[in-house]
Design brief:
This protein is mainly β. It is 11% helix and 51% strand.
Length: 152
């Protein structure tokens, strides 16, 4: 964030909203951590049927195990400048993740809410250096979960 944006939160929020409207993406995979070095990859099509992924269900909400790691790919409309010690100057995509304890499924809305997402690669962009939230919606064409909203 620039010095001007730090002094003016309204401007920072406006810039964030403009940036986040151009984001698309999809759920890449869910990883179940079974011990220190044993990881099990669960395809997105099987997340609602796997006991290793689902922790509990209450009313219309499904909660997921804390030992799961959710990986989401975000695609930008046009390349965005990377910050810090990035390995590239610009990027048009970014892989991010969150822990399963920060994920819930609303059965009625058919949406998955992922809170506290962070980039999982060294090449990040200024707008995504702070944790953010993602909403995934089930594709009507196939079993993919697509990014429908990114917000703070």
């Amino acid at each position: 964030m620039s010095d001007e944006e730090e002094e003016n939160p309204a401007k920072a929020e406006k810039n964030w909203l403009r940036f986040s409207k151009g984001l698309k993406g999809y759920l890449v995979m869910v990883i179940v951590k079974k011990g220190r070095h044993n990881l099990e990859k669960v395809p997105p099509s099987e997340i609602l049927t796997g006991d290793s992924v689902i922790r509990s269900q209450q009313m219309n909400t499904v909660y997921f195990h804390y030992n799961t790691l959710w990986k989401i790919n975000l695609d930008f409309k046009k390349p965005v400048r990377c910050v810090g010690n990035a390995v590239r100057e610009t990027t048009d995509w970014l892989l991010c993740h969150t822990e399963g304890g920060c994920v819930r499924l609303d059965i009625n809305e058919r949406k998955i809410y992922l809170d506290n997402c962070v980039p999982c690669v060294a090449s990040t962009v200024k707008q995504l250096t702070k944790p953010f939230n993602i909403v995934l919606t089930k594709s009507e064409k196939n079993d993919d979960w697509l990014v429908s909203k990114v917000y703070r």
